[in-house]
Design a protein that fits this description.
Chain A: It comes from Asanoa hainanensis. Chain A: Its main location: membrane. The structure holds four protein chains of four kinds. By secondary structure, chain B is an all-alpha fold. Chain B has a single domain (2-308), classed as ABC transporter involved in vitamin B12 uptake, BtuC (Orthogonal Bundle), CATH 1.10.3470. Helix content of chain B is 73%, strand content 0%. The two termini of chain B are 18 Å apart. By secondary structure, chain C is of the alpha/beta class. Chain C has twelve helices and twelve strands. In chain C, the strands form two sheets. A six-stranded parallel sheet of chain C has the order 2-1-3-4-5-11, with helices on both faces. Among the domains of chain D are: 1-87 and 219-257, 3-Layer(aba) Sandwich (Rossmann fold); 273-345 and 431-509, P-loop containing nucleotide triphosphate hydrolases (Rossmann fold, 3-Layer(aba) Sandwich), CATH 3.40.50.300. Chain D is globular. In chain D, 50% of the residues are buried. The chains are: A mainly alpha, B mainly alpha, C alpha/beta, D alpha/beta. The A-D interface holds A 1-4, 171, 173-176, 178-180, 182-183, 185-187, 189-197, 249, 252-254, 310-311 and D 69, 89-91, 94, 100, 102, 105-112, 115, 119-120, 122, 128-132, 154, 156, 159, 172, 283. The structure holds adenosine-5'-triphosphate (2 copies) and magnesium ion (2 copies). The site of one magnesium ion (MG) has 2 residues of chain A, from loops. One magnesium ion (MG) binds at residues 5, 256 of chain A.
Chain lengths: 312, 309, 343, 515
Amino acid sequence: MREALRRVSIGYLVLAATAVAYLVVYTSRLGRFPTSFDYLSILNTTLPLVFVAIGQSLVVLTGGIDLSVGGMVSVCVAVTATTVSSSVFWLVVVLALGTACGALNGLIVAYGRIAPILTTLATLSIFTGLALRVMPVPGGSIPQEVRLVLTNPATPTGLIWLGLAVVGWLVLRRTRFGMRVYAIGSDEASARAVGVPAAAVKLKVYALSGLCSALAAVFYVSTTTSGDANAGNPFILTSIASVVVGGVAFAGGRGSALGAVAGAVALTLVIDILFFSGIDPLYQSLFQGLFLVVAVLLGTVAALAARRRRQA
Amino acid sequence: MSTRRVLYALGGTVAVLLVGAILHPGFASWSSLRVMLVVASFTGFVAAGQMLVVLVGGIDLSIPWVLNGAAIVLTTSSLGQTSRAPLAIVLALGVGALVGLGNGLGVAWLGVPAVVMTLGMNGVMQGLTLGLSKGLTCASCGSYAPEPLRGLFDGALPAQLFLWAGVGLFMTVLLTLTTFGRRVYAVGVNPRAAFLSGVGVRGVTVALYTLSGVFAALAGIALVAYGGQPSLGLGDPYLFESIAAVVVGGVSILGGRGHYLGVIAGSLTLVAVTTFLQAQRVPEYGRLMIYGLVILAILFAYGREKAHD
Amino acid sequence: GDAATPAASGKKAGKIKIALSNSFIGNQWRVEMENVYKAACAMPPYVDQVECSVFNAGNDVSTQSRQISNLISQGVDAIVINAASTSGLNGVVQQACDRGIVVVSFDNIVDNKCGLTVNTDQIKFGQQLAQFIVDELNGQGNVIMVTGVAGTGADNDRNKGAKDVFAANPGIKVVSTYTGMWDSATAQRATSAQLPNLPEIHGVWVSGGTDGVIKAFVAAKRPMPVVGGEAENGFRKFMAGLLTPKVNGMSIGQPPFLSVISLELARAVVKGEHPKESITIPFPVATSDNMVPGETVFPDLPDSFFADFTDSGPNATVILCQEAATDGTPCPGKTLDVNLGTP
Amino acid sequence: MTETSSMAPAQQESGSQTLAVRASGVDRAFGGVQALRDASFAARPGEIHALAGENGAGKSTLIKVLCGLIKADRGTVEIFGTEVSRVVEPAARRRMGVATAFQELSLLPDLTVAENLLLENPPRGRLGLVKRRGLGPAAEEILGRYGVDDIDPRATAADLSVAQRQVVELVRVLAGEPRVVILDEPTAALADRQVEWLAGHMRQLRDAGSCVIFTSHRWREIEALADRVTVFRNGTHVATRDTLSEAEAVTLMSGRSFAGAYPELTTVPQRESALRVKGLHSGRLHGVDLDLRRGEILGVGGLAGQGQRDLFLTLFGAQKARQGTITLDGKAVAIRSTKDAIRAGIAYVPEDRKAEGLFLPLSIRDNIAAATLSRRNTAGFVRRGAERTAVGSIVDQLSIGKGRSTNRAVDTLSGGNQQKVVMARWLLTDARILLLFDVTRGVDAATKHDIYELVGKLAAQGRAILYYSSETEEIAHLCHRVLVLREGRVAAELAGPVGDAERIVAASIKENHDA
Ligand SMILES: Nc1ncnc2c1ncn2[C@@H]1O[C@H](COP(=O)(O)OP(=O)(O)OP(=O)(O)O)[C@@H](O)[C@H]1O
Ligand SMILES: Nc1ncnc2c1ncn2[C@@H]1O[C@H](COP(=O)(O)OP(=O)(O)OP(=O)(O)O)[C@@H](O)[C@H]1O
Ligand SMILES: [Mg+2]
Ligand SMILES: [Mg+2]
């Protein structure tokens, strides 16, 4: 676990480094420190990615991957934006819908024995189609009250939700379910052999990922105030990037959702850093690509160094 | 074991074509089939590279912009002149190889997970392509792909199909008859054991990623030849499609198992499904959903992992 | 917390600050749109009055809203937006409006009513092209529709306009509808694959990727139908007879210079020279009979190039040179006149 | 309990007191391999029941069926009289009191020892949440209860030695105080001292009324421990006895009679040195010198984890040396990769054949040819004819797979045959120096004997062999000379054949009795 702690701390390190870089470029550009406006808007725009990244990290911890988060977010965004203005009760339906989509993935992966990347590649297409069916044109809305509670642009209500997400993870980590997630990711066959009900746990993990996507969708609609059937697409790769930057091992079993949260925030800050450093927009993706590789490389090097130190 | 999966993949293609022919007469006619084969060949090229890296448990997410970059290099360096075509082709393939090499080195030597390395590389290539070309696919030129290249698609039996057959032959020979092929499967099945048997695991990995870059570039060249000129975003459709073709073709995503023949079948199946759904005038949302369901059905038919027991 | 709103603290007496926030740069149209924007900024009167900046967001709503937030922090006077999602930026745009920043969106516009828009009538786009096809075919014939990216407003509107027209003409049979994703290569592949299964086609309606559709017909050696499509230079080369066969068609484009008009609108509103009103501009329309090399078609530019980067004719909204679109460099010795029409 | 019978136990004991475990008529196939056919087995509470049989006899498969890891194709399984055949879920069996230590260990590599031990029953705090701070102390307490004090509960399982992992695995199983304990080759990776430790706990459980089932290929362990023995052959029950002599057992297991454990050491090493190592530092090695002569079998003894593995891996180029020189046939060489080593004529046969040796889904031929591909390479192509000939002859020589096609996937072979496949790969290299690392681990008596003879033959051919085994007895009998490693250094050198394993053990622990 100390090994895991060390790996996780890479995500925090990257976050710290990007935060410092952000402060430096911001102040050197504008001649003052960021204001509460900046912090709030960072917080609110990151929230959807934070939730998707938490869900993605759970799946990656079991050694899987969830490409369908894009589709699940899209469906849930479509449903949220079209229904919630009529009754807030629909929020519950949205969360249930996301969970159900995730559970479908889980069923196929755990009981259908189809590799996660393939399952979710197929369901991505299905969920995206569903989103288009629900919402052929962008639009919809969300009640102002919901917005004020979830992502208030004037007060940091977002912190409460972020805090709840963190606490949720810490609690989960301290359940037997949480331990089993790591066990499966570490070695599924062995985990089964020592009595971990692997299929049931995976089902739950994918369902949780769906729930996280639904939460992300709700926050997305809340920040943007309306919906779009293609809203989820960018989350596929950004959530994977967050998880990776956050130090979760792709093979599973190592890392933490908190790392992924740190990774998500760091990725958001990178956008701001590139913005304020005045990089030619044509080259922007170059730097984002480099950031990804370098961040992970640092993680690998640090892990290697840790291993060396321990063996010596 | 994996030869059986190739048969399943071929069976899947035949089944899709049969269903199509029954519901939509003329769907499986030669003229229709020929076009589908041509369209599938692009996926087939890209999937060749994707398959190679999947065989060693990797994945290549850099395909879209490697393809696009190579396509742009082809037109900007050939300027449409036949005499410069060979040089341009070499340059375009060289770009693919170089990026693939970068991916391979990152994965094999630096230990960066394949997903990250290639995802990052995709961004790097996108930035470089846009930045260096200033977004113009062919800097202030109206030139087309050189004439010989455009001829790839002429005739009743287009040369492109022979090119694809050539790729198929190359892949099959490479993987089944050469010592390199043996090493690939060994690395894919058990890298530690391969290393302890004196297989240069890193070298093999680097070579495979390099080849994947080359195949992406080849697809870029073919697409430019097909459309005459490149456009930005040319490669975007081929990322998920190449992965889908590989698995529908019966290659195990866990590595070590699969043959290119299956991937050919997989590419054709995907194109046939899309074509069929569009011919049936299924709306876009329905098309996406059915496409996903078909892939799932195929996976259930022969893409399942071994039971844990 | 800083008491002063960022917008107020950022305001200076001299130049006004106008930023372009573009959702992504992955296609030719966006490149041209940015280029003409940059060119305009380098030409009088903008070069003296406006401090321009350009940002791209990788087609990701949250990236774009981060950038707009940062622009708010920077204290710009106006933001010109081509949005990653018509709905996705409503929240942050509201925040900009609340701080007195002028927001002008174009092409993929922002829903939020507090911002201004410069746009074209997409329903009319679909109608006009469809009507052209109907007229050329004398209301009789088989037509295919090649649509754009599903789930976007523009695609929906264009299709709706076209469908209405086709439906009103019982002699017209829409025999196939499929997506070309507004991409020539995709449109070409999809059309190639469909053609063997289709009867003779008399008319083609294309939302985007027109040259690809035509190339597919050529490759299949099918008789060339009447084509109503976008403003790709490749399409126009066919229309002008620069490529064979000569195509009878109508080309309407979403003009890249929308960005320049938006720039002008933003400038004029900030300066108080123009009321805070959205504007709709007419589409530049070209038909096979009025092709002029160097003006509506460019033999030396790529097929994927959008040939409507400049308006033409006596009532032109704005006239730009080729370098502006290809390199983003200013047109030689010229003050840029943008005609916003009479409010 | 005196009756002896070769009747199927299920019939034999029906109606008697409740059985702890009973399987009858069990079939189970893997692909084309029929691992169990009409197999029966029964064990009572309060006994230690050994399950014996050659490699591939179906012992592990039966155990997996018993503990609910895999499904039987046919047949019934009862636990304390309750039919459980339908529920295939180890967790469900655990709740019935069945705990199993598997042959291929089932520790979770990324979890700590503490987490591994307490995964299914962690200490809870308020709200029923796991007390993560309590994990370490709780695990320490459990390990302490079993007298294990050399394993840090906070260490990650992947960082433990094989023996340590085995111990943790065993503690995990024992600590649940299960009513049925199944141990599949628990001693394969244990040193003698640890075997004693395990035996004590097995007896304790038995005396407390639990049913203890175990498998082993070491007859003396079965003899010492088991109250009853069941013999399997070819997936079927052959006999269950209270007492059984080794000779009888071997006859029952292999269907042929078979005598003598270790072949005589008839060869004499040559004079020339094949491999000389000076001041080698690597991993846990802190300055090892050795001189291996041609035709010599040099044993490497010592307690587990004294750097033996580091020595072998470093000599084979799979691990970097910090310091030291290696001389081959009098010439100093630098071995930086496994490729270098192979080119220099060194071969390494690993202990863990599944993880380090085999390409399970690939054919026997591909597996055997893997290290010599470049020898049959023309312009990049495999010379398939030559390959078939070369593989064919070595397969015949080692009698692998009973003459069936070499196109069969290796995972259809029994463990012993799989081990021979790995040996065959290295014999094809014509290596002059063979590094044999615990190659008889988990290999049945007959195959072991084959391997001993093979080792002798190889030495007679003039090859130099460095030999490590977790069974000290083997080293004592097979080797011309034995180096005893302690704390990364050569602590003693004994002339062989040592004969008495106790001498090696004594040299291993001299001066430092709790090492
Ligand atoms: N997962 C599997 N897939 C294919 N074949 C298998 C599998 N597991 C076991 N077998 C085969 O079933 C037969 C019985 O194997 P099992 O492991 O039960 O033997 P065993 O008696 O435990 O042998 P050992 O003493 O070597 O452990 C062997 O031929 C083996 O190769
Ligand atoms: N498996 C373990 N064995 C022994 N001690 C442990 C173990 N896990 C945690 N501890 C100790 O308990 C304390 C609390 O650990 P903590 O709850 O932070 O675990 P963690 O691994 O960081 O969880 P997370 O993955 O959620 O970040 C630490 O000081 C650590 O030393
Ligand atoms: Mg922690
Ligand atoms: Mg066994």
